[in-house]
């Protein structure tokens, strides 16, 4: 019998049947129907599967379930419900920062984590945030414009 593990996803507590070494990506997609979490490379290199764990961006395709028990997880389905995530989502949609859209969910999750830490990210912080994300469509310039727009809106809201 497979053991059960309790995890909190998007503010809701779940008890899932999963072994310690089962991967978070598959539990999120297959058991909890979080289809915004994408399978890309399966090795933690492309960023398509990025989720937030206790506010920190992590790749779910190489995250064993023993590492998430008792942690708070957020998936792309939660972006609109998070004040910072909603601004990021709006900026990406408004500036059409996605082309095929496959990688963009993971990118928005990492950007949301960054903008929770600072609304004035440095170029080095942006580079560090995006270094684990592969986008083959060539939407990089639009992605950077969307991040800048989201950061500017959050600064404006903070000073209002």
SSE layout and pairing:
Elements (H helix, E strand, L loop, with lengths): L3 E6 L2 E6 L6 H8 L18 E4 L2 E4 L12 E3 L8 H12 L9 H14 L5 H8 L9 H20 L1
Parallel strand pairs: 1-5
Antiparallel strand pairs: 1-2, 3-4, 3-5
Helix pairs in contact: 2-3, 2-5, 3-4
Q: Explain this structure to me?
A:
The chain is an alpha+beta fold. The chain has two domains: 72 residues, Beta-grasp domain (Ubiquitin-like (UB roll)), CATH 3.10.20; 82 residues, DNA polymerase, domain 1. The chain has five helices and five strands. The chain has a five-stranded mixed β-sheet with strand order 2-1-5-3-4, with helices on both faces. The longest helix has 20 residues. The termini are far apart. The model has no long low-confidence stretch (mean pLDDT 93).
Keywords:
160 residues; alpha+beta; Ubiquitin-like (UB roll); DNA polymerase, domain 1; 2 domains; 5-stranded mixed β-sheet; 5 helices; 39% helix; 14% strand; globular
Strand order of the largest sheet: 2-1-5-3-4
Q: What value does the Rg take, in angstroms?
A: 16 Å
The CATH topology of the largest domain corresponds to: DNA polymerase, domain 1
Order of helices and strands: EEHEEEHHHH
Strand count, sense and barrel status of the largest sheet are: 5 strands, mixed
CATH architecture term of the largest domain = Orthogonal Bundle
Total E-strand runs: 5
- How would you describe the oligomerization state of the chains in this entry? single chain
Top CATH class of the largest domain: Mainly Alpha
What number of domains? 2
Strand content: 5-15%
Name the helicity range.
25-40%
Structural class: alpha+beta
- Average per-residue pLDDT, rounded, comes to 93
Give start-end ranges of low-pLDDT stretches. none
**Termini gap:** 55 Å
Q: Output the number of helix runs.
A: 5
């Amino acid at each position: 019998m497979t053991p059960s593990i309790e995890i909190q996803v998007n503010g809701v507590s779940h008890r899932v049947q999963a072994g310690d070494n089962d991967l978070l990506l598959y539990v999120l997609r297959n058991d909890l129907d979080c289809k915004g979490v994408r399978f890309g490379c399966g090795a933690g290199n492309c960023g398509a599967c990025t989720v937030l764990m206790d506010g920190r961006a992590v790749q779910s395709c190489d995250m064993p379930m023993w590492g998430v028990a008792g942690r708070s997880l957020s998936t792309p389905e939660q972006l609109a419900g998070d004040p910072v995530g909603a601004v990021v989502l709006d900026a990406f949609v408004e500036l059409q920062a996605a082309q095929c859209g496959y990688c963009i969910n993971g990118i928005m999750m990492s950007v949301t984590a960054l903008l929770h830490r600072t609304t004035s990210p440095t170029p080095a912080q942006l580079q560090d945030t995006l270094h684990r994300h592969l986008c083959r469509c060539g939407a990089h310039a639009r992605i950077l414009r969307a991040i800048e727009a989201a950061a500017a809106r959050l600064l404006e809201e903070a000073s209002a």
